[in-house]
Amino acid sequence: xxxxxxxxxxxxxxxxxxxxxxxxxxxxxxxxxxxxxxxxxxxxxxxxxxxxxxxxxxxxxxxxxxxxxxxxxxxxxxxxxxxxxxxxxxxxxxxxxxxxxxxxxxxxxxxxxxxxxxxxxxxxxxxxxxxxxxxxxxxxxxxxxxxxxxxxxxxxxxxxxxxxxxxxxxxxxxxxxxxxxxxxxxxxxxxxxxxxxxxxxxxxxxxxxxxxxxxxxxxxxxxxxxxxxxxxxxxxxxxxxxxxxxxxxxxxxxxxxxxxxxxxxxxxxxxxxxxxxxxxxxxxxxxxxxxxxxxxxxxxxxxxxxxxxxxxxxxxxxxxxxxxxxxxxxxxxxxxxxxxxxxxxxxxxxxxxxxxxxxxxxxxxxxxxxxxxxxxxxxxxxxxxxxxxxxxxxxxxxxxxxxxxxxxxxxxxxxxxxxxxxxxxxxxxxxxxxxxxxxxxxxxxxxxxxxxxxxxxxxxxxxxxxxxxxxxxxxxxxxxxxxxxxxxxxxxxxxxxxxxxxxx
Length: 504
What we know:
Elements: H1 2-6, H2 9-17, H3 20-24, H4 36-39, H5 52-61, H6 69-72, H7 80-88, H8 92-100, H9 106-112, H10 135-148, E1 163-164, E2 169-170, E3 180-184, H11 188-199, E4 203-207, H12 216-219, H13 228-240, E5 244-246, H14 257-262, E6 265-270, E7 276-277, E8 290-292, H15 293-301, E9 319-323, H16 327-338, E10 343-347, H17 359-367, E11 371-373, E12 376-383, E13 389-402, E14 408-421, E15 424-427, E16 431-432, E17 464-466, H18 469-472, H19 477-500
Parallel strand pairs: 3-4, 3-6, 4-5, 6-17, 8-15, 9-10, 9-15, 10-11
Antiparallel strand pairs: 1-2, 7-16, 12-13, 13-14
Helix pairs in contact: 5-7, 7-8, 7-10, 8-10, 9-10, 11-19, 15-16, 16-17
């Protein structure tokens, strides 16, 4: 399909319109951002999106490579040149149609995916020593255009295997079977699986234990990075094609996994994520004033919280330290700035170069006045005379030899211990899987991750598949979505094979 699209007459004409030398001479467009002095006082999205003219100019930079590396770098294998070239010719509705073939969350991925490590990392421009095409910014543009300007554009009712309800067959000629599948968890992996299975003609019900659909997209990412209305719109598109969502249902307690099969579901996809916090296990960790990033972000994302009733995280004029260097830590510290913290600190045991958070997020944090205390590791939290947190004792570190991940391992510097005054500490040092409750016959690791066949995402139990963070541990939105797409293709193929073997 991708090759056929590239051979279209209009694509040939676009390539001939401008030489490669002239295209590569165009500088990468910079997305407008809210001014620092304004954005630190509110939760408005910092990145404002590309204008039409900016998007068309950036799309013109794309060389429409015959063997595009960007597609290979995308976990869901979006037809990246296909949608970008449609933007260049100002066919924005066609651009989103191309994206909708492979992703159900383009507006989300355009905002929070680490494109610099995936699709943009394999852009041909890197080999020329130039900045890659702004693939993420263009994906966001196409999705936002659909939502804000041309709301009549819908998710296409047909993919290669999409159902045609009139003749009972999919568009590829395969027969349609009224089979129901259940999805456990409504984060990006569950949503990706649900969308793909529904467009293949299956009945799909998504079960969410919490009171909001979206998982980490709603509870774990602040609105200045990913507005809730963007997530809600993506979910609404899934509802329009027939995906059912059921909230406040904890599978394993409200219903057992066996109950789901008794209710008529023929296949289960488990996408419960990895939201169980990992603790530092140091003295004072249980003091009032020390909390996990999960609790902190949920409370602040819902400032008049439907979960807690009232926001009791008051950060005005307080000294706040976030422990960790990932995206969640950066989100948390930037939230502290917006809540009026007197001092907002990232405390990280490695250096700035080793920090795994997205470079853009780190840049935004620096612009907003966040203090980075690197090569520093807390070893104890100290209480005041009322038993509340007043300070943390930290160990200064230096980098030694690489560890198992390939990063240089931090080593303590002898007798280099300091004390830092702090009113609130947020631990963001990793997560463990949300291990399914009472799930028989499914093999798991010692950490509670579900073991699957990586080619199909099938577990050791019949008709149970899994993907996302519950399988791979904490990772990115787009990797979780890739698991969902792979599982949908595998489960659908298994159903079709089984039905084909039935002799009437």
